[in-house]
């Protein structure tokens, strides 16, 4: 599974991060410099697998010279993306613990070229909507490092400032942003007005293949369906866009036991209450509307979190 995640990410980045082209004509391969390669640290062999993971959480980058900006111009970027992705996989067993990322970004902040490079790696692995390793908690220290650096002018800071505002919304463990939804009948309700042990917010669009897959995965889940029947779980399927004709034509596809609604006036989008860069998106809230799962597409993850809470 880990190998497939990293492979899919590297393939995703291949178009924009391809290797440098060699000029046309006959070139002696001995004259072509080999790209520089980063080799992560190795954990002591006498440690247990869990101890090795904890060791690498803090020592993975020990062999990397953050002062060597010349390395950046000669390295294989795809290999660096792969190495960075493996590091994220390593620390993702604690998805809300951003301390290792904060430590890494402090080291990368030694110069602007180094900070720009690691910010680029983070953007592709942690922030790209299509990345399987997307994680806002890990991306927050990256943006904070950029904004704390002295090298950016007011215009260059606009992007990181906006992204930081966005990723700080609806963090796991924090209360979710409330919003008002509208039903086909014209009646309205609010997220905080939904009374249940759990609320599953399913932000979706008609005609979206992955939206259909998630809908079918939820309806195929014995666990989630039993919870819906018992009133322990309420599913709010929310359409966030303007074209209500498209939404009305699609609404029969939503199970009648779910709340099928739309965001009148696109308030969620216009006020940046939730990140809509990637749809579909699943959020799981507890009865107090505290975020348990943020911006996911994995129904098994929803089941796992609920099961873990008993």
Q: Can you walk through the features of this model?
A:
By secondary structure, the protein is of the alpha/beta class. It is 44% helix and 11% strand. It contains 13 helices and seven strands. The strands form two sheets. A five-stranded mixed β-sheet has the order 5-4-3-6-7, with helices on one face. Strands 1-2 form a two-stranded antiparallel sheet. A hairpin with a 5-residue loop joins strand 1 (180-182) and strand 2 (188-190). Helix 1 (2-14) runs antiparallel to helix 4 and helix 5 (99-108) runs parallel beside helix 7. The longest helix is centred in the middle third of the chain and has 16 residues, at 112-127. The two termini are 26 Å apart. Mean pLDDT is 90; it is low at 14-27.
Question: Uncertain segments of ≥5 residues (pLDDT<50)?
Answer: 14-27
Please estimate the helix content.
40-55%
Distance between the termini: 26 Å
Put simply, the count of helices is: 13
Alpha carbon gyration radius: 22 Å
What is the 3D shape?
globular
Strand neighbour order, sheet with most strands? 5-4-3-6-7
Beta content comes to 5-15%
The H-and-E topology, N to C, reads as HHHHHHHHEEEHHEHEHEEH
Major sheet attributes:
5 strands, mixed
User: What's the average pLDDT?
Assistant: 90
**Count of distinct strands:** 7
> Structural class, from helix and strand content?
alpha/beta
């Amino acid at each position: 599974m880990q190998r497939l995640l990293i492979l899919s990410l590297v393939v995703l980045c291949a178009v924009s991060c391809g290797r440098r082209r060699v000029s046309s004509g006959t070139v002696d391969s001995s004259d072509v410099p080999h790209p520089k390669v980063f080799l992560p640290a190795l954990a002591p062999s006498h440690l247990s697998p869990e101890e090795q993971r904890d060791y690498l959480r803090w020592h993975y980058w020990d062999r990397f010279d953050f002062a060597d900006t010349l390395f950046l111009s000669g390295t294989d970027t795809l290999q660096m993306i792969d190495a960075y992705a493996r590091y994220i996989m390593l620390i993702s067993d604690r998805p809300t613990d951003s301390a290792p990322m904060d430590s890494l970004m402090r080291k990368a902040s030694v110069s602007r070229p180094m900070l720009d490079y690691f910010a680029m790696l983070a953007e592709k692995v942690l922030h790209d909507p299509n990345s399987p390793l997307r994680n806002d908690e890990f991306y927050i220290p990256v943006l904070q490092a950029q904004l704390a650096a002295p090298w950016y002018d007011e215009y260059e800071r606009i992007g990181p400032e906006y992204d930081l505002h966005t990723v700080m919304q609806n963090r796991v463990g924090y209360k979710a942003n409330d919003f008002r939804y509208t039903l086909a009948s014209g009646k309205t309700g609010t997220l905080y007005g939904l009374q249940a042990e759990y609320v599953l917010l399913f932000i979706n669009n008609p005609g979206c293949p992955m939206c259909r897959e998630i809908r079918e995965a939820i309806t195929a889940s014995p666990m989630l369906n039993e919870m819906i029947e018992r009133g322990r779980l309420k599913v709010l399927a929310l359409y966030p866009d303007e074209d209500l004709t498209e939404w009305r034509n699609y609404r029969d596809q939503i199970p009648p036991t779910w709340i099928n609604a739309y965001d009148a006036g696109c308030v969620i989008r216009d006020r940046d209450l939730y990140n809509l860069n990637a749809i579909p998106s699943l959020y799981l809230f507890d009865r107090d509307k505290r975020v348990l799962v943020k911006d996911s597409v994995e129904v098994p993850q929803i089941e796992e979190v609920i099961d873990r809470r008993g």
